Amino acid sequence: MAMEVKSSPPVTLAATDAVPPDLDEAALDIAERARRFAENVLMPLEEEAEQRGGRLPDDVVDDIKRQAIDARLNGGMHAPEHGGQGWTRLEWALVEEQYGRTTNALHWHVPNAYNVWAHASPEQVDRYLRPALRGELKDAYAVTERDAGSDPSAITATAEQTSDGFRLDAEKWFVTAGDVASVYVVMANVIDSAERLPTLFVVDRDRPGVEIADDPAYTHNYPEGHPTVSFRNVELSADDVIGGVGAGEELQRSWFTEERLGIAARCGGAMWRLLDETVGWAVAREQGGARIFDHQGVSFPLADSAADAAAGRLLTLTVASLADAGADPKVVHHKASMAKLFTSEAAWRCADRCVQAFGGRGYRRSNVAERMLRELRVDRIWEGTSEIQRLIVARGLERRGVERMLH
Predict the structure, then answer these.
(1) C-alpha separations of 110 from 1, 75, 186, 224, 378 in Å
(2) By CB atoms within 10 Å of each CB, which of 137, 217, 270, 280 scores lowest?
(3) Domain check: are 254 and 222 in the same one?
(4) 216 and 256, same structural domain?
(5) Contact, 104 vs 46, CB < 8 A?
(6) Is-contact 117 129, C-beta < 8 A?
(7) Same domain, residue pair 402 and 254
(8) Which of 192, 219, 246 is the last residue before a domain boundary?
């Protein structure tokens, strides 16, 4: 006889013991706002986004932006004086966790901008950052090249100095949002005699010499593409530099750390959603006179994923807290790689297990597990592959010591 499954009443984050006890009321409020936004605004749009290849109608996108701004979720870690929220990294990680519970990258519609704008000039802030946080323009970060992916030291893009500034020559691959962006942040080497100085440049899309060279399709259905963008003899001025000539490597390291930590948080959220959906299905689904959840072949893999999810969440939030506390940026960099490595690998395993538990239903695109399976695969690749993360963690063990890496 099958047991009756009763749905539990909805609970808020503040009313549960599912968060570390040292989170203050401000962090809990931010997380709860993000949860309501994810569940009430984004999740109902997932299947429509999937059916439309990731691209929702403009009026729907405008409504997402409006509701995100009303919920004070735009520009999370950017300064309030620039139009952001001024969150800590821990608060931001809690929000990213909620976004990870959704599919089709619908949270990309929440007005935001890359962290390097914190080093922009006042004029750049007014022209690009403030409008971005109002949802009026989109930026894109262009660093990867044909032969320079996980090894940014291999970048061949150059910015030759001229009497009026610089002449940029580059071809950048996998430029997320490059198809819809109004402005690109481009990494290139400034040529100064024999020196090559890594530098970030602001490049408007409508500048002469900027064009989309290729716009391939990818496994997931997301709102924005990842095109190849070419910059041929693009004339720039000194005012188009972010953070100063030669500062690009340090700014990029900070960008990678943040991106990897965000991936870790979203992968944790993905496992949460996957387990919610799959456990609910498995305890209600009966085969051969018993719930499939009572078969260890179903429940044990889910138990393993629950352990992964809990461990990954704790690791991610701990790294975010270390960054907020002003820990050694190099240690934070190593540990962010550890968090990305662990959670991205675990989330992929979790999605695969959940598809299997759903059986044939798990292979339908209307199923969250199927969409997650496709979408989570890239988290083991972008912002540094799992193999690169292992190298970074190994170097941390050697250079920072085992104790600092583990504690």
Answers:
(1) 47, 8, 22, 13, 21
(2) 217
(3) no
(4) no
(5) yes
(6) yes
(7) yes
(8) 246
On whether the pTM is more than 0.85, the answer is: yes
Question: CA–CA separation, 329 vs 326, rounded Å?
Answer: 8
Calpha distance 153→224 (Å, rounded): 27
Show the tokens assigned to 298. Answer: 């179903």
**Would you list the DSSP string of 180-206?**
T-SEEEEEEEEEETTEEEEEEEEEETT
For residue 378, CA distances in Å to 25, 45, 385 come to 34, 22, 9
Q: How many domains does the chain have?
A: 3
Only one residue has tokens 């991936």, namely 263
pLDDT for residue 150: 65
Residue 268 lies in a domain: yes
Q: Is the dihedral of CA 260, 172, 386, 363 positive or negative?
A: positive
The residue among 81 and 148 whose pLDDT is bigger is 81
Determine the length of the chain: 407
- Return the closest-CA partner of residue 102 out of 381, 377, 372: 372
> Which residues, at least 6 apart from 16, have a Cβ–Cβ distance to it below 8 Å?
none
Residues 253 and 364 in one domain: yes
Tokens, residue 193: 């005699």
* Beta bridge partners of residue 191, listed in sequence order: 160, 196
Q: Which domain holds residue 371?
A: 249-406
Same domain, 179 and 85: no
CB 215 within 8 A of CB 266: no
Q: Domain boundary at 214, 246, 278, which?
A: 246
pLDDT surpasses 80 at 14: no
Calculate the CA 133 to chain-centre distance.
17
Check whether 6 has a pLDDT greater than 70.
no
C-alpha to C-alpha distance for 379 and 263, rounded to whole angstroms: 7
**CATH assignment at residue 260:** 1.20.140.10
